[in-house]
Amino acid sequence: MRAGETELEMVRRHVEEGAGHIANQRALIARLREDGLPTQEAEALLETFEDLQRQHEDHLARTLGKQV
Length: 68
Fold this sequence. Notes:
mainly alpha
């Protein structure tokens, strides 16, 4: 956590950053395909990012549930 950041703020930041990582990775894969380059490793990393994003989103849901 960053100084002064609540758990909810941290988790929301992680969800937002994760979405950015996924968007960037998808764009990279598209560029690789356009250039006729292999995409297997980039696609595997995208899957990892997507798995992590689901974890971040689950954490956000749990954190929001605590605050109700």
